[in-house]
Structure formats: structure tokens, C-alpha cells
Amino acid sequence: MEALSGSIFFNIILSIIGVMVVFTINALFAVWLERKVSAHIQLRLGPMEVGFHGAIQSAADGIKLIGKEIITPKGVDKKLFPLAPYLVFFPSLLMFVVIPFSDKLQVQDLNIGLLYFFSISCIATIGIFMAGWASNNKYSLMGAVRSIAQSIAYEIPIILSILGVIIIAQSLKLSDIVAKQNIWYIVIQPVAFIVYIIAAIAELNRTPFDIPEAESELVAGFHTEYSGMRFAIFFMAEYTNMFLVAAMATTLFLGGWRGPILPPVVWFFIKTYAIVFLIIWVRWAFPRLRPDQLMNFCWKFLLPLALLNLLITTFLLKLF
Amino acid sequence: MDTVKEIKKDFFINMGPQHPSTHGVLRIVLNVEGEKVLSSETVLGYAHRGVEKMAESKTYIQMMPVMDRFDYVSSMLFEWGYVGALEKALGVKVPERAEYIRVIMGELNRIASHLLWVGAFLLDLGAFTPFLWVFDARERIMDMFEEVTGQRMTNNYFRIGGVKDDLTPQFFKMLQDFLKMIRERMKDTEDLIESIIFLERVKDIGFISKQDVIDYGLTGPVARGSGFSYDLRKNEPYSVYDKIDFEIPVGEKGDCYDRYKVRMKEVIQSVRIVEQALNLLPDGPYTEKSPKVVKLPEGEYYNAVETSRGLLGVYIVSDGSTKPARFKLRDPAFSNLSILDKLLPGNKISDVVAILGSIDVVIPEIDR
Amino acid sequence: MALVALVDNFSLTKIDISYEAKGFNHAYLLEKKEEIVDIAKAFKDEGYFLETITAFDKGDGLRMIYLFNVHHKVHRTAVYFDSPYDAELQSITNVFPSANWFESEVYDMFGVTFKGHPDLKRLLTPEGMKGFPLLKSWKPEEE
């Protein structure tokens, strides 16, 4: 909110409110969208009772979860067990800082915006391991270990895929990257876009990469022992991350908030939710990969593909 | 000071008896090292109801509804086995219309069982959508059963000498609608299921060789997936199956994918059988007059039919009274499950689910 | 060894039954119970598989029933022999691995043990079960 007012204190308050508003609306909307899309794919209708076509269903579920008893199993680590959900959740809020919702709506346009974004997202991995370890449960631990291996492995193709964009735009500043997209970067870097989306779905621990949460194998993975509000926090973290990943894809590949006629903010949300819809669609269409297949896919396919893309990009840039 | 302790790297994981993937109350104790299974032990008996002992204090008519409760996803096929044994003993000839009705209902049961299997198999692998698509088709079959027999599952429909009630005109209408949509639904479901991810999960996993089929007495789609063309409807025809034209699909390699493919093709073959049976359905009585008191002559009687999981044998020893002296079920899933302890070692934990799913077990049938 | 020579080589007597009434094509009564292993081997050599092993309490002893079947023709063959209660019979697990669970079930229900069985244990009844349920002499415990 740089151009809105002079007082820094006022800016900070406005930013906090803005982020909380976006976060809350996303949590409510994205959950509803997921339930409706999955229902229609599966020949059902989804929530219909609460509100028009189930519009306030998510709010109702949130209120219910707040009222649930928080069960702490015996033998858990007393300090780490309650801390873990928050460690998974707070990095998501911090990542909102650099997202350019429009040319004027961005909390802080850091010079190293991209670097900041992807660094903060790694902190959540520590939280996941903390949850698995502190639960004092064989299955949670196995789920956490698988999840960490997956997160760390898929970071590399993500970074490599956006390196192409960085080289073309010659900047890490997100507002610069949007400003330079007279042609959307998805046209110039289609391979990078595909690699980014696939690796991002893996980072989110969603099907087909949802081994850490695989219900039919290890009950519920690293968040098995969490109930009530703590479980809700894990849940919200996943949906917030989904929004953030889609927002980053929009910014880097789909021209951010740029678009004719409609106000920039509206374009931003349309593009972001189109990517969210794609991510939801993929979840309900495919079975899940085995852990070793998952890792093979990352190291032996995505990584070489991203490297190849980088090589060709730099080569072509040098030529023209 | 250096005392080197040998660190045991393997540990035991317990799958079940309460577990989303074990299709009932089955317990598998796995000895794993990391992700690899070293050995496994199947523990049965959680759903044991002592039916074989119970049968010795019940009359033959009283045992009829109990036959439904073994394989509840395709109950009429088990009833057929039992009723066939009684008819053999009493020398009752079933009228032709009843035979064709039995074929139609039996094949619908087989389709329903395979549909449920496909949904559950994919659900274990993590794909949620095919489950709902096939259950929609299965719902229509359940509605048809409710129309004729009054119940959706565990129908208690077969009687000595025929069936309980004739088919209604509403049933024929529902059947025509169903036959129109099922082929397309199966094609859509197959297209949805067979992505590269699915193929990677099930191909080249859980090989069952032809020698294993003989050693372990496997029957049904598990045996046919390994290239063994053994189906009682063709090899030992009973009822009117010799008048109907259909094929027995077989696999080649005997991995999980072949068993899946065999079941999918069997659904289409069953649809063919139902269509032909509908055309050939004659008029006439739908049942013989069944005796009020059923007393089997002294001796032993054995009847084998092909259920959706394999060869079912019903063995009754009678001492001339109204109650059997010995009642034994040779159920297919019992033998099919015995190969699990041989297949699992060397595979990964995620493959355990795929292999167990491809064998298709229903626990009450095994535990009796 | 061809199956035709079964009667000559072992102590089997052929029982006359009709397929329509009984459901078996052939049935034999065995005199000496130890020969069951060699008989099973003879069947296996011809490509037969073991359909089931079961028993039935006659009142003065058990009658064991072994069913063999082959897939390329209709030829279900039953081999019977009599055995006293609490007998120790020969296991045919080395010949047919499927006998593993069949024999365990017979032990569980009737109390006969099988010599040479790799892992004879109670299969279906709960842990701590006393007695063998399918014997006529078994009564459920009073609560």
C-alpha cells in the first residue's frame, strides 16, 4: 500500500487488515470451490443446504471446528506438539507480503521479492516434521518423513523453472516482472509453466502427490493426532498455500494484474482462481503416486526438463 | 568402550483389522525395513460367525437367508450354489423360465460385484472419482433388485425349484435403460482410470505364475489374469449357460493390471449374457412347487458354481433329517487370499494395498 | 503315474456314485491314510489342483475328504479316508501349498494335527479358544 498514505503506521495497519481479508475470503471461497468442483466431477451436487448452493458452508464448518474438543494424546512432546501447526501456518501469511494484487496493492515491493517468497515457504517444512515427530506415533512419523523428502526434492525444479522468467525479466522484483509482460511469459516459457505447476502441486502435498496424507495407507499422515482447531489450522494452511502458489503462477506467467477493461484486481483474482481450479481438477482425476515413483519423477524427469528449459532460454536470449 | 550394538532396522507394522484398505476386518502383520516388506502374515478370523456349526442346528430352509450373508456384494450367486446342491439331492428339475431369470439375476450380481471392486481398488490407490461413477451404475442395479426381490442386497430370492417371484414389467424397463448406459459408463470409467499414474502403480506388480495357480488352487479372475482359462460357466456348464454365447477374458502376465483388465472385460461379457438371456427368456412357470418340509435323502452332495471371485463349492452331508449333518463351503476368496503371504515380500508398502486390492477379498466369505 | 493306475497302486476302493446326484465324478475310499501324500503327488503330476480338504464327524470317528479337480475336463475326484479323533495325519503341504490353510482349518475345527505342516495354528476361531467346534461332542461354554 505504498502510494495510499504517508504514515508508516497507518500503512502497516491497512496491510494487516488487507491480508487478513484476502486470507479469510480465500479460505471460505477455495474450500467451497473445491467441494463444488469435486462434486460435479463425481456426478453429485455438493453442498446445497447452507446458503445459496452451499455458499456459507465453509463458514459453518469453521464454526463447528472451533467448537470441537482439542484432544492431546498421551506421550506427545508438550512444547512442540501445540507449536507445530502454527509453524506450518504463519509462513503462509508472511508470503502475502510480496504478492502484487494490482499495480497499487502490494504490501511491500521488495527488491528480492521472488527470493523472499520461496525462502519463507521452506519454513513450513520444519513445522511438518515437528508435527510428525511430536505426535509420538509411528504412522505420523512416517508421514512426516515422506513429506519432507518430497518438499525438499521438489523445491529444486520450482526454482529452476522460474529462473527462466527471472533471466528474461532481469529482475527479482515482482512488480517489474508484471510490468515487463507485454506478452505473457507462458507463451515464451511454456515448459517452465508446466514444470512449475507440477512441482507446486507436489509442494502442496496434493494428489497425485499426497502420499504424506494418504488415507488408505497410513491413516492420515503427519496430522493424524491433531483435532479441532489445530487440525483446522493445517487445513487452512493448505488452502492458503494453494492460493499463494496460484498467485505466483499468475504473476510470473500469466501477466499478473494486467488486462483490459476490468480493474486490475479483478483480473488478478480471475487468473489466480483459474489456476486454483486447474489444481483442484487434477486432484480429482488421478490416483496417487508411490513414494519412490514420486522421487524418481522429480529427479529423473522434472529436474532435467527444467535444466533443459533454462539452457535453451539462455541460448536463445544470447542469440537475439 | 566400543560396544557395537547391532541396530535392528526392521520393524513391524500392523495393517488392520480397522483399516480403510483391507476391505473388511482383515489383519496383515508386515515386517518392513524402510519402505520394503520383508515378510507378512495374514491373520483371519475377525468375522468368524461359526456358520458351519450353526447350519447343523438349522433346517435347510432356515439356512437360505444365511447364504446371502457371506458375499454380500453379490449374494445371489452364493444362493445359487446352495439351491443347486439341494436340487441335486432332491432331484428337482427347474423350469426353463426360472433358469433364465437366475442367469439374469446372477450376471447382474456379478456386474455389481465387479463395479464395487473397481471403485474400491481405485479408492485405495487414491483416485476418488471412479468410485462415484461406478457406484452410480451400481445404484441402478440395486434399484432393480429392490423392484423384484424387495431388498437391495442380501436378497433371499432363490428357492428350491426356481425363484421367489416373477420379474415385473417395471424391471424390464429399468433393465433396458441400464443396458443402454452401462457400456458407455464402463468406457468413460476406463478412460478416466487408465492414466500413466495408474499404470505405473499396477503394472508389473504382484506376479502370479501359472504354477502358482495350480499350487494354491486359485480360481476366478485371479487365475484368469495369469492366463488360466478356467471358468465353471464354460468348463463345467450348469443351468442354461451352454445355450448362451460369451467369452472368457484371460490375461497374459498375471500382474495386478491383468487382473483389473480381466474384471473390466468380464463386466462387458456379463452385459452380453444378460442381453441374450433377455431375448431367450421363455414364458412359463417361474418355480416348481417346493416342498414344505425339506428332507434330503441320506448321502453327500456337492455343487459348484462360478461366483464373482471364483469357484464356490457347497458340500452338504445329510443323515436323512431336516437338518444337515455337515455343511461346508469351499469359498473362492479363502484360497485366493492364501497366496498373499507369498506375493508381498520384496514389494513396497504402497504396493501391499494394490496387490491386496487386485485379489478382491470379501472377508465374511472367508471367515464364514 | 497315470491316474488310471490309482486303484492298482494304492489301497483305494472305488465308490460308485453318480455325478448328477453327488457332484463328484469319481470317489475313492482309502484304506491306509499315510498314502495320501503319494496320491496327492500323483494328482499333481497330472495337473490337478486341490479344491478343498475337509472333514466330517461320523460319530465314531472322522471321515476326511480330499477333493481334486482339473481344469481341462469335468473330473472332480474325491478321496475319503477314516481317521480316529485326535489323530496325527500326514500333511500334503509340500505337494500343494494351498493345503496349508485347508489343514489349519481342519485342525481348528476338528482337532486333528498334521505332521510336516509348516505352521499349524488356529485360523478362524478367536485366540484362547478351547475345544474344537465342529465335533459333535463340542458344547459351547456356559457364560
Give the N-terminus to C-terminus distance of chain A in angstroms: 38 Å
Low-confidence stretches of chain C: none
Helical stretch tally of chain A: 12
What is the residue-mean pLDDT of chain A, rounded to a whole number?
82
Assign a percent range to the helix content of chain C.
Answer: 10-25%
The shape of chain A, in one word, is globular
Radius of gyration of chain C: 16 Å
Order of helices and strands of chain A: HHHHHHHHHHHH
Q: How large, in whole angstroms, is the Cα Rg of chain A?
A: 20 Å
Beta-strand portion of chain A reads under 5%
Sheet with the most strands, sense and barrel status of chain C: 5 strands, mixed
Query: Beta-sheet strand percentage of chain C?
Result: 25-35%
Strand order of the largest sheet of chain C: 1-2-5-4-3
Structural class of chain C: alpha/beta
Low-confidence stretches of chain A: none
Report how far apart the termini of chain C are: 55 Å
How does this structure look, described?
The complex is a heterotrimer of chains A (320), B (368) and C (143). Chain A is an all-alpha fold and 320 residues long. Helices cover 68% and strands 0% of the residues of chain A. Chain A starts with 7 loop residues before the first helix and ends with a helix. Chain B has 15 helices and eight strands. In chain B, the strands form three sheets. In chain B, strands 1-2-3 form a three-stranded antiparallel beta sheet. A three-stranded antiparallel beta sheet of chain B has the order 6-7-8. A two-stranded antiparallel sheet of chain B has the order 4-5. The longest helix of chain B has 30 residues, at 96-125. Chain C is globular, with a radius of gyration of 16 Å. Classes of the chains: A mainly alpha (320), B alpha+beta (368), C alpha/beta (143). The interface between B and C is large, with 40 and 35 residues.
